[in-house]
Amino acid sequence: MTATDASATPAGRGGAEPTLSVGHMDVVYKVRGRDRLALRDVSFEVGRRESYGLVGESGSGKSTVALALTRYLPRNGRVSAGTVSINGADPLAMSGTDLRHLRARTVSMVYQEPGKALNPSIRVGRQVAEVYEVAGLHRAEAAERAEAMLRKVQIADPGRVMGRYAHQLSGGMAQRVVIAMALAAEPALLILDEPTTALDATVEAEVLDLVSALRAEFDTSVLFISHNLAVIAKMCDRVGVLYAGELVEEGPAREVFEDPRHPYTVGLLRCIPRRGQRKDHGRLDTIPGFLPPAGHTLSGCVFAPRCLLAEDRCREAPPPSYQIAAARTSRCYRHDVAPSLPRATPEDKPLPGPPASAETLVQLAGLSKTFGARGSRGSRGEQVHALTGVDLELERGETLGLVGESGSGKTTLAWVLLGLLPPDPGATVELAGQPLAADVRRRPRSQLRALQIVFQNPDSALNRRHTVRRLISRPLARLAGLSGERLRARLAELITSVRLEDRHLAMRPNQLSGGLKQRVAIARAFGSGPAVVVCDEPTSALDVSVQAAILNLLADLQADEQVSYLFISHDLGVVRYLSDRIAVLYLGKVMEVGPAERVFSGPHHPYTEALLSAVPSLDGQRADRIKLSGEIPSATNLPTGCVFHTRCPRRLPSGICESEEPPLREVEPGHRMSCHIPLDELQNLQRAGQPT
Amino acid sequence: MTDIVVAPAAGVAVARPDQTGELTPWRLLLRRPTFLAGAVILLFWLACAIFGSLIAPHNPLAQQLLLTNQAPSGAHWFGTDQLGRDVLSRVIVGARSILLIAFAATVLSTVLGTALGLVMGYLGGVVDIVAGRLVEAALALPVVIVAFLFIVAVGPSPLTIIVVIGLVFTLLIARTVRSTVLVESQLDYLAAARLLGEKSVSIMFSEVLPNVVPAILVEFTVRLGYAIFTVATLSFLGFGVQPPTPDWGADIAHNYVTLGAGYWWMTLFPALAIASLVIAINLFTDSIEQVLAS
């Protein structure tokens, strides 16, 4: 293994040679003295100017691929077999100097958390300029080039941004800066590892557009890693599907997602609510079982234990990679029948549509929440208006979806309803006609029973020192007033209804997978027999296949228990699947509220329109995206007039949007909207497509 | 990973085997040589403290006026002191007072400090601000000065030392527990408990406390080391165990004046005893901390 050949090999630019070529790569991690295989026999190529997507759930090994390519594997990891070639050079055989050279000039990486990729103590401008200085430019020239690069990533005022520190930038801005740094060296290969996962949908859309534009301009090949199939579908020419460390299917992105030929891909795509699918259309399909543990030693196909098409040969020997069409491969013996994979979850169970009889259960009126209002902790005058004058109602048995970007007040609204945060004086918060005390400690037991929550992150929501039995029994004993045999009976019933097993009762949360933990949290919320359950992003921390099972469970429980949901999510597909009505929040105000189908199909509020068009879709329509310009204004200083006017693509030229706040008025039965533009005009505008 | 349950009053931890069969903290501890070394030394001194006069070759109080200031020899391994008492016997029997006082003071401070820290961290607001400033004010004074004030008021005795060290360390432990509780307060399980109508006291002790036990455990062992040091210091200054009862600090104070005459053994051996005990506890603490962190 000599180090010299790496730099000696001329980089064959423009030739047929791919930018990145990985051949039969194995990666192992040494854990407690044993080698555990994390990647097995992974082969793929990224051609010149090509964008290649690697998609897989957590634990599939997609980040390990990125780390292995640039030799950033942790100390206990190594490439144990196979070849890697970047621009004709082999990073696995490089010396330290050559490797640094490769990382500086040829390959750039962008990670999920832009905040962590930037040095908090160095000004942004210096960090970008450093890339040029490393390339040999003088300080002044490097600063100039850095400013030009920041302009290219569409930062409005690069001169000022250069003087800031990372913490002074929003998430979207920080990610642009990281992309600017990554592209500054004009790399041959850009590796993006979940670059938009931490960002809001509207910001994600902008960043993705930016990456597409710059890829064309800089002539860069892209390896795009994500768990989000829709993002991959939008961004990539070709896609590889990773499962348990193996590349199970590969091909042109559109073809793979339209006509998947590996049972795992088929199952994964069925887990996602698509094409306006709703709970009353039937349940989502799921993938049974669990990912094999790291370092598994399966003799056959890695997916066989979870595959409903598996035969004896699948369990005996690993399938080879079948060439099923030009440039398409599938690692499945039964790739020809993969699309006819039987459903793991029957579709037929009737799920409730919107409730027939309207009985208002929760009534919110004039609800505001201002943080820092009473200058008790210093900082006088700095008031954050988290919610302003919110009027909403929730009916018995319905699901009200709450959507909006981060900072729109969704979670604050839920916490106020639950009595975990007091609202500003003068608000009406009622449950079944009875006023709810502002503080949960002052609420009678009947009201405590009625309102429960499922949090986003079960690791945080479940006390890690308590057993599952204790976690689920507590509401039964405290709120439902059960004890002894009746408690045991109800406990057994509950765990069956959330599909947990008896053996889980003695375990603690850290012994359960993410999906099982969320089931425990759901069982706890349903233990008291609630009338309303707040679901605050209950599936955001989960993988797609687990998400489907949890959504089915929530729908089933609603059908059985006639419970109402206040369902908060940033994933509009998920909200659409579960919700009967939807409320759209922006900067703490309700922009629009109405029946789910009306809100989604339109005509809708310009903000709703922007949110919807920002979401990448697997179904691949909608080229007429309307874009939001600028950042969300600060909640300490709300814009005058309509709070959305600063970013609204359909702002009226008359100036009324800047000066006068539109009332939330009923534009059609049950559909309220806060916009100066009349409904029929909105309809015409939105049919016509993007505003000029 | 960490599966440690506290016996509520004493702050003594017992490890329980994990159901999954992965390595429990207890087994991980036993694999560490530093832990084993610390444990062996500690157990040795514990045995001395418990069985002192049974193990000691001589009566530690017996004065042999014909055999004063004897250098270490086969008959007296650690030599004899100015009054002809056997130094080895005094070192062995002297383990009792220092361990007893230090342990009692640390237990007292752990119990009180945990309660105070939980209240400060969980209730926050005015309670936290007022208690926090009081803690800082009290910690501004050196322990020895505080002890002196107490002893002037109530007279020197082991009980006084226990109370003084116990109260001062209570404040230190409260500060650590408070900061750990603040981290826990960010987690949603506390909100979930409030939604089940749990009272504040119940949330503090049955929800938060089990999660801060690892931090308390580490704090307990760290403080035990400091307590031994402080007890020895106070005894040396004459505030603790009174002569002729064997006590390492008091014996050093009594004998160090003879160092100039070359009688090093009567000072060195009690000093080594103090050092070995403090080192043993620190080895112990480091291992526990590392295992809990892993």
Brief rundown of the structure:
The complex is a heterodimer of chains A (692) and B (294). By secondary structure, chain A is an alpha/beta fold.
In the CATH hierarchy, the architecture of chain B is: Orthogonal Bundle
Q: Give the strand content of chain A.
A: 15-25%
Strand content of chain B: under 5%
Total separate domains of chain B: 1
Mean pLDDT of chain A: 86
Please tell me how large the radius of gyration of chain A is.
27 Å
Q: Enumerate how many helices of chain A there are, as a single number.
A: 25
Global geometry of chain A: globular
| N-to-C span of chain B | 8 Å
Can you tell me about this structure?
The complex is a heterodimer of chains A (692) and B (294). Chain A is globular. The termini of chain A are far apart. Chain A is α/β, with parallel strands linked by helices and 692 residues long. In chain A, the strands form four sheets. An eight-stranded mixed β-sheet of chain A has the order 5-6-7-3-8-9-11-10, sandwiched between helices. Chain A contains 25 helices and 23 strands. The model of chain A is unreliable at 1-15 and 375-379 (pLDDT under 50). Chain B has 294 residues and is mainly alpha-helical. Chain B has one domain: MetI-like (MetI-like fold), CATH 1.10.3720.10. Chain B is built from ten helices and two strands. Chain B has helices at residues 25-30, 33-55, 87-123, 125-139, 143-154, 158-185, 188-195, 200-236, 248-255, 265-293; strands spanning 4-7, 12-15. Chain B has a two-stranded antiparallel ribbon. In chain B, a hairpin with a 4-residue loop joins β1 (4-7) and β2. The longest helix of chain B has 37 residues, at 87-123. The radius of gyration of chain B is 22 Å and the shape is elongated. The chains are: A alpha/beta (692), B mainly alpha (294). Chains A and B meet through β17 and α17 of A and α7 and α8 of B.
Question: Could you give the topology of this structure?
Answer:
The complex is a heterodimer of chains A (692) and B (294).
Chain A: H1 4-8, E1 20-31, E2 34-46, E3 51-55, H2 62-69, E4 77-86, H3 96-106, E5 107-110, H4 114-117, H5 124-134, H6 139-152, H7 158-162, H8 171-184, E6 189-193, H9 201-218, E7 221-226, H10 229-235, E8 238-243, E9 246-252, H11 253-258, H12 263-271, H13 312-316, E10 322-325, E11 328-330, E12 360-371, E13 384-395, E14 399-403, H14 410-418, E15 428-431, E16 434-435, H15 445-450, E17 451-454, H16 458-461, H17 468-478, H18 484-497, H19 514-527, E18 532-536, H20 544-561, E19 564-568, H21 572-578, E20 581-586, E21 589-595, H22 596-601, H23 606-614, H24 656-659, E22 665-668, E23 671-673, H25 679-688
Parallel strand pairs in A: 3-7, 3-8, 5-6, 6-7, 14-19, 14-20, 17-18, 18-19
Antiparallel strand pairs in A: 1-2, 1-4, 8-9, 9-11, 10-11, 12-13, 12-15, 15-16, 20-21, 21-23, 22-23
Helix pairs in contact in A: 5-6, 5-8, 6-8, 8-9, 9-23, 17-18, 17-19, 18-19, 19-20
Chain B: E1 4-7, E2 12-15, H1 25-30, H2 33-55, H3 87-123, H4 125-139, H5 143-154, H6 158-185, H7 188-195, H8 200-236, H9 248-255, H10 265-293
Antiparallel strand pairs in B: 1-2
Helix pairs in contact in B: 2-3, 2-10, 3-4, 3-6, 3-8, 3-10, 4-6, 5-6, 6-8, 7-8, 8-9, 8-10, 9-10
